[in-house]
Structures are given as C-alpha cells and as structure tokens.
Specification:
Elements (H helix, E strand, L loop, with lengths): L15 H4 L6 H6 L3 E6 L8 E5 L2 E7 L5 E4 L14 E2 L4 E2 L6 E2 L5 E3 L17 E2 L1 E4 L2 E5 L11 E2 H4 L6 E5 L15 H5 L7 H9 L13 E6 L3 E9 L5 E9 L3 E3 L9 E2 L2 E9 L2 E10 L22 H6 L3 H6 L17 H18 L15 E2 L4 E5 L6
Parallel strand pairs: 12-21
Antiparallel strand pairs: 1-11, 2-3, 3-4, 4-9, 5-6, 6-7, 7-8, 10-11, 13-20, 14-15, 15-16, 16-17, 16-22, 17-19, 18-22, 19-20
Length: about 400
C-alpha cells in the first residue's frame, strides 16, 4: 500500500551533464570555450593570489611590466606552489630553487644549474591567457585553437555623460555571501524564473524591491540565439504598462535590470556567474554608474537589514535567493523535481544548454563565440521599460 511516506523512496540524482564543471566533463568543456571573469583588475598584483575556477586551482599575478597572467600553481621543477613565489620584472620566481617563469610559462632562469640552465627552454609552466576589460580580469581555459575574441557589450561601452563602468566581486545578485555554497546552475536558472519574484521577494520576506515588483506578472518566455529571454508585464497604478526584460546569455551571463527600478531604459549592469567548482560559485558584475555610485547598492534588505546582519532566526523568517538556492542542496536533485507551467523558462534554458553540449561534443562551436572581432560586440534587449497602457506581453 502506498501511504505517501518517504520510506523506500528512490535514491535521488542530479544532472551531472548540466552541473559538473571540471575539465573533461560535458559542461566543463562547454564553459571552457568562453572567456570568464576570474577577478578584479586590482586582484592582479605583485603578490600571487590563489584562485579556483571550474575546479582548477590557479595563481594570478601581475609582473613588473604590468602584465596580468594566470599559471598552474605547482612549479614544473619539483612541485611546490608558486603562491609563495616572488613576482619580478619578467615573471614569477619559485621560492624553492629560484626557477623563473614568464607570463606564458617559459622558464627563463634555473639559477642552481650551470650556465643558468642550458635546457631551460624545454620546460613550460602551464598557463592560461588573460585579458582585462571593464575592471575585470577575464581568463580563457579552453583549447588554444578554439579561443574566441573577448566579447564587448554595448550596454557597458555606450556611456552617457558622467557615467563610468565599475566592477564588483561581492556577488551582488546572489542575495548572500561573496562565495555561495551551491551549484552555479541553481543561481543561473533563477534568472529565468520571474515568478519567484512576487513570492520570495514580494510577499514571503516582505517587499525587498519596489511595490510594482510584488505584482504577479504576465510572462512570455522565448529562446534566443544566445540563451533565454523573459518578458514580464505589469500594470502600474496609473494604468501605464511596466515591461521588464531579463536575459540569460551564454556562458553564464545574468542580464538583469535593476529590480529597484531606479529609472527606465536599457539594463545597466551584467553579472557573470563563475563556477568555482561543482558546489560553489561567485558573481562578478560590471555596470554603469555615476560619480559616487556603487553597484553594491542593489543589495536587498530583509527585515530592514542586509543579509550579513541577519540572525539565524531572521534568515528563516526572511529568506532570499541565497537561502532558497542553497536550500536546494550543494547540487539539487533533479530527479525529485516536478515542473509546472511557470517553469517554462528553466526548461528552455536546460534545452538550450543541451543543444550547446551536443555541438561541442560533435566538434562544433557553441552559441555566442566570435572569431571575428566585428562579431564580438553584443547588444541586449534587457531593461525596464514604460508604455502608455498595459497592452500584452
């Protein structure tokens, strides 16, 4: 007799193909075909910095010539970490035996060897290419022959008078700590889930944004060339229509207009969800601000407090995105999900990712990569917009 208890339930499972990001995994190989922000430009300095990116441990530094680069941490000589290395004019020197590597891993000196190491040119410290843009350091961790151009974004390049681009690494948009202890996809799927906004952010924990965001919207979901678009329509008290467009764009971009609706128009910032490993992520953000502006101002308050100020009881009584998504577990059990019509955006996003995984597995190029610089500038529809009447979606 089936009594509906949890006794005897099947062992739950998750979609490893969509969630695991290590080298050699399907999603890991897909994500490695794109550039990802791995730090702020200020993070690259003359003191080596540890990074973990898609399950790989790496060292970031900037040499004496101002070049920022990323290297494998274990010295090619005897394996001690370059975290304790010394950054010099030409590169980084291992603390153990003094081998010096340049930013592309070439061994320049072996001081304990006669003649400075006559065979040093046969040694190469593994490294990854970096580029800097929008105050962020971007890394490409994929196959060299498939390296695309680093994209530009019209919403960050086309500045109004008095605007400039600022960068943030505190995971604005996560609803919590800078490093979030759950799988990256649990957050990225949230970008195309507009119905959680009036519940989680509008009524359950009190109005975290503005009054109109608490209204249940009419929604249209659609797949795009680079991901999934969500159009939400609400009617304001004065009868005007409020049209909000959000996009999830490969590789992990969250193109989300300001939920506080400080003004209307195109999206003002972009967030990149960086998988640290299978069970941790952080968000890097670049956005347009004016003098004295801060991207961190977009953080929500619950019970009049910021997330870091809440007690454990208040986290229970006033949950946000962080609690909802980490509450799904380190990697959510997809086998236990029961989708409804409001989950169409998530279904579209998973289907889109499956298509990109197939392209890479077949030797093709995934969506959104550009091998001609003229194709590397992206323009988004995302933003908050007003219309004269509510109309239709």
């Amino acid at each position: 007799m089936d009594t509906g208890t949890a006794y005897g339930r099947k062992k739950p499972s998750y979609r490893a193909d969509l969630t695991e990001v290590g080298a050699g995994t399907p999603m890991g190989e897909l994500l490695r075909r794109y550039w990802h922000p791995v730090g702020l430009s200020a993070d690259a300095g003359d003191r080596p910095r540890r990074l973990r990116v898609m399950g790989e441990d790496l060292i970031l530094f900037r040499d004496g010539r101002g070049r920022a680069w990323l290297v494998y941490p274990r010295c090619a000589h005897r394996g001690t970490t370059l975290y304790y290395g010394k950054v010099e004019e030409r590169g980084i020197r291992c603390c153990y035996h003094g081998w010096l590597y340049d930013v592309e891993g070439r061994c320049l000196e072996q001081p304990c060897e006669e003649g400075g190491g006559p065979r040093r040119d046969k040694v190469r410290q593994p490294w990854y290419p970096l580029e800097e843009r929008y105050g962020l350091v971007f890394a490409y961790l994929g196959p060299a022959e498939k390296k695309p151009f680093l994209p530009r974004y019209a919403c960050l390049d086309e500045l109004a008078p008095g605007e400039f681009v600022a960068a943030d690494d505190s995971s604005v948009g996560s609803g919590g700590a800078a490093v979030v202890p759950c799988n990256w996809l649990q957050h990225w799927e949230n970008v195309v889930d507009p119905f959680h906004v009036p519940v989680l952010h509008g009524s359950f924990s009190g109005a975290q944004f503005v009054a109109q965001m608490a209204q249940v919207p009419k929604v249209e979901f659609s797949a795009t060339e680079r991901g999934v678009k969500v159009v939400s329509l609400r009617t304001l008290e004065n009868g005007r229509g409020f049209r909000r467009v959000t996009e999830a764009v490969v590789p992990t971009l969250r193109v989300v207009p300001n939920p506080r609706v400080d003004g209307y128009g195109r999206v003002e910032s972009i967030g990149w969800v960086l998988p640290i490993d299978d069970t941790h992520y952080r968000i890097y953000v670049a956005g347009r601000v004016r003098e004295n502006g801060q991207l961190g101002r977009m953080r929500s308050r619950m019970n009049g407090k910021y997330w870091r100020e809440l007690s454990e009881e208040e986290h229970q009584r006033f949950p946000g995105d962080y609690e909802a998504q980490t509450g799904q577990g380190p990697i959510t059990f997809h086998s236990e999900e029961h989708f409804a019509t409001s989950d169409k955006g998530i279904a579209l996003l998973r289907r889109f990712l499956e298509q990109q995984l197939a392209k890479v597995a077949e030797g093709g190029n995934p969506a959104g990569v550009a091998f001609d610089e003229k194709d590397a500038c992206l323009r988004f529809e995302a933003g908050n917009y007003l219309s004269d009447s509510s109309g239709t979606v």
